[in-house]
Design goal:
The protein has 241 residues and is of the alpha/beta class. The protein folds into two domains: 49 residues, no CATH class; 184 residues, Rossmann fold. It contains eight helices and seven strands; from the N terminus they run ααβαβαββαβαβαβα. It has a seven-stranded parallel sheet, sandwiched between helices. α6 links the parallel β5 and β6. α3 packs parallel to α8. The longest helix has 27 residues. The N and C termini lie far apart (51 Å).
């Protein structure tokens, strides 16, 4: 099995490096543009009807008996009861927990699924009319940012970090409006945040100390809802604005 995986990987690399004619490159790129456009149009039309939601990010590999799976489910349940819809990446693990909690709470449960060679398959707790499928990560990330009124970031891997830092960068550079970014699990996140503060900010001056104010670190579902509610009360907005 492992040998087959290596052979398949070699074949994929060879295919990517294979010399193509200019006509082949131009034709492939042109059709890719139409596919990207189609994903944007379908995403915009579907998400625009859903209304304000909070995105929950985290690992696809987290098992149902893991404490963070259970916490993500509780957070999504409480978020739904507070009036917010929930968006996840649509797959297993933390994403499944988020959709499951939203479904149990009677709230909007959205899944932005991505087609991957492993890990990803949509979970059964997504509202049937709110399950979107994407081939392109960058299109999917636009949907998360454009239609989210808050990010709840559970422990995860590289994809979770990518989504977290994308959101922080867009807010930091004022490309999008400020909204709550909530990291759940101080034990998981403290080491990373300490490095950001002591090395990236204090030592190398590669970001501003004020940027750390964009992020809140909590450990309970009640704290997540409190951060969201306090943020939107400040601007006289309700969860379903």
């Amino acid at each position: 099995m492992i040998k087959d995986e290596f052979l398949n990987e070699d074949e994929r690399i060879q295919e990517k490096l294979k010399q193509k004619t200019w006509n082949e490159i131009r034709t492939n790129d042109s059709w890719a543009i139409f596919k990207v456009m189609a994903e944007f149009v379908n995403g915009y039309e579907t998400m625009a009807r859903i209304g304000p939601c909070v995105s929950i990010f985290g690992s696809a590999r987290t098992k149902p008996d893991n404490k963070y799976y259970k916490l993500a489910e509780e957070i999504a349940f409480k978020i739904s009861k507070a009036g917010y819809g929930v968006i996840t990446g649509g797959g297993p693990g933390i994403m499944e927990a988020g959709n499951k909690g939203a479904h149990s709470g009677g709230g909007t449960s959205v899944g932005l699924n991505i087609e991957l060679p492993f890990e990803q398959h949509h979970n059964p707790y997504i509202d049937k009319d709110k399950n979107l499928n994407f081939d392109y990560f960058f299109v999917r990330k636009v949907m998360f940012v454009k239609y989210s009124q808050g990010f709840v970031v559970m422990p995860g891997g590289f994809g979770t970090l990518d989504e977290l830092f994308e959101a922080v960068t867009l807010i930091q550079t004022k490309k999008i409006g400020k909204f709550p970014i909530i990291l759940v699990g101080s034990q998981f996140w403290t080491g990373l945040l300490d490095w950001v503060k002591t090395v990236m900010i204090d030592q190398e001056k590669n970001a501003s100390p004020e940027d750390m104010n964009l992020i809140k670190v909590v450990d309970t579902a009640e704290e997540v809802v409190e951060v969201l509610d306090n943020f939107y009360k400040k601007y006289n907005l309700s969860p379903n604005f």
